[in-house]
Specification:
Chain lengths: ~260, ~300
């Protein structure tokens, strides 16, 4: 199975260091949460890990090969990323858009097969957009567009999921639904996921591992049980945090 | 002419009417079709390239360069037969200027390309105005006709058909990539497209098509803007269907427009660009309105 490895990765944006000497291994069966305050560089780091931008130093290895040496097509079959914003400029139907996930798997002149259609329809059902197949994407609400982008990612069937705030714009029910989907991919299909999140409690509920970005290049990575506690979260968000015991585990609230 | 006269004219190319059909009408109709097809295809490509539904084949200054070179040729009294070559030369020079300035070393920037193209186009427009204001009245009419797009002197060299066919096959091969590109450059990269190469290829394809079309018939407006949209409303946004549909309909649309331009005020000929706008604008608004009612 594929893994994504960061080897002493230095990433910065506009002179601001996001992480220095980051070592991280995304292994199949792991569900990572990426936490950090606004503007700390979560998106930039994800883009770097997807090979969209180059790091200042260090390497990202995909299947033990430097990601910048791999053709985008090969990368796209192994790694999929949900971007933070989904804006559709041109009319296309919901089904057509979900089918774009098959793009890296198809040859130059090849058309989507009946099997591909089934995959797209199943993904559309999974994100609760059933009945929207023929609708134009330009008419979707923010949350619907978000779910469609996630559906397209499912259709892409990557081994590694990079998700940039997948629960943005989503109501509670759909937040859980999406996170359940990712969890299922990780646990049942042995995929690996790294998910930037602002909701600490979603991280607490789903993630097996946590990567924290503190700014100025400082980072911590490890099992969620070790890192998700009041002291670390107070340091991370620089605000008082209260921890609450619930029937499903410890949860966190902003303190007074 | 009656149908029987048409038939005999077509069968007997040596007769006066036969000669009219074979030597004048047919080449002009084929030229009109090819130009319309090229402009429509180029419009589809430009709209995806700039991710802007308002883009047309001329937005990046290709036609400006062609117009400047042609008008300059007219001023210096260069033979009409050479004007298409001048137009082609001007268009290609403009493409090279924009390409060279916008390319840079960094990542692809649609904004930089758009700004470079639009500013270059404005530069050409200023030079064209200068030439027009300095030209004697006697040559103004011909110049204005050319600027509005005119098929009266159009001849269709064989190489332009090769360009059309070649670009069509290439574009059709890229069609699924264009679908992905329409969703944004980053999305396209994440779905496996080497976008830097793809975008320049799309730009070059669109430019070559526009340059060829402009060299044949001047800058005929509206075909490249309206036909892609009309076809999007009718057949949807999948470029595997949109590209052939726009190409076919673009050609058809211009043949009809040119026939009208030739006959409406006959023997007076109108510039075909006026007809494409007069036909295209209401047709487009009508369809857009109907699409809105359907809730698309």
């Amino acid at each position: 199975m594929s893994s994504l490895i960061c080897q002493s990765l230095d990433v910065s944006i506009a002179g601001k260091t996001i992480c220095s000497k980051l070592n991280l291994e995304l292994v199949p069966g792991q569900f990572w949460g990426l936490l950090g305050s606004n503007g700390i560089g979560k998106t930039t780091l994800l883009k770097c890990m997807a090979g969209l931008t180059a790091p200042d130093a260090g390497t990202v290895l995909l299947e033990n090969q430097p990601i910048d040496k791999l053709p985008r097509r090969v990368i796209a079959r192994l790694l999929g990323m949900l971007q933070q914003h989904t804006v559709y400029v041109f009319d296309a139907s919901v089904l057509e858009t979900a089918l774009t996930g098959r793009h890296p798997h198809l040859g130059y002149w090849e058309r989507e097969s009946a099997d591909d259609q089934q995959k797209a329809l199943a993904a559309i059902r999974a994100v609760d957009l059933e009945g929207f197949e023929a609708r134009s994407v330009t008419g979707l609400s923010g949350g619907e567009a978000r779910r469609l982008a996630f559906a397209a990612l499912m259709v892409q069937e990557p081994a590694i999921f990079l998700l940039d705030e997948p629960t943005n714009h989503l109501d509670m029910k759909h937040q859980i639904r999406i996170m359940n989907r990712v969890e299922k991919q990780v646990n049942e299909h042995q995929r690996a996921a790294l998910t930037a999140l602002h909701d600490v409690n979603l991280a607490a509920r789903y993630c097996s591992h946590i990567l924290m970005l503190f700014g100025d290049g400082e980072w911590r990575a490890g099992p969620a049980t070790e890192l998700l506690n009041q002291r670390m979260l107070e340091k991370l968000y620089q605000c008082p945090v209260e921890s609450v015991r619930t029937s499903t585990g410890t949860r966190f609230l902003p303190g007074g | 002419m009656e149908w029987s006269e048409w038939l005999s004219a077509i069968q007997n190319s040596a007769s006066r009417q036969g000669e009219l059909v074979w030597r004048l009408r047919l080449p002009r109709a084929i030229a009109a079709w090819a130009v319309g097809a090229m402009l429509a295809m180029s419009g589809c490509l430009m709209q995806v390239l700039l991710r802007n539904p308002l883009a047309d084949p001329y937005v990046l200054g290709v036609s400006g360069g062609a117009a400047f070179a042609t008008l300059l040729g007219m001023v210096f009294g260069i033979a009409v037969a050479f004007l298409p070559w001048l137009a082609l030369l001007g268009a290609l020079v403009s493409v090279l200027i924009v390409f060279g300035l916008a390319r840079g070393t960094g990542p692809w920037s649609g904004t930089r390309l758009l700004l470079t193209g639009v500013v270059t186009a404005s530069g050409w427009a200023a030079m064209i105005s200068l030439i027009l204001s300095l030209s004697p009245d006697s040559s103004l009419r011909g110049m204005l006709f050319w600027l509005m797009g005119d098929l009266s002197y159009a001849t269709l060299p064989l190489w332009s058909l090769v360009v059309l066919a070649g670009c069509f096959v290439l574009t059709l091969g890229l069609a699924r990539s264009l679908n992905v590109l329409a969703m944004g450059e980053t999305t396209a990269r994440l779905l496996g497209e080497p976008t830097r190469h793809l975008l320049w290829l799309v730009y070059l394809l669109a430019s070559v098509l526009t340059a060829t079309a402009v060299s044949i018939a001047g800058s005929i407006g509206f075909v490249g803007l309206i036909v892609p949209h009309l076809m999007r409303l009718l057949v949807g946004s999948d470029h595997r269907i949109l590209i052939p549909a726009a190409t076919l309909f673009g050609g058809f649309f211009l043949v009809v427009s040119d026939t009208l331009a030739r006959t409406v005020l006959s023997p007076q000929q109108l510039p075909v660009g006026v007809i494409t706008a007069l036909l295209g604008v209401p047709l487009f608004l009508l369809l857009l309105n109907r699409a809105k009612l359907k809730g698309v």
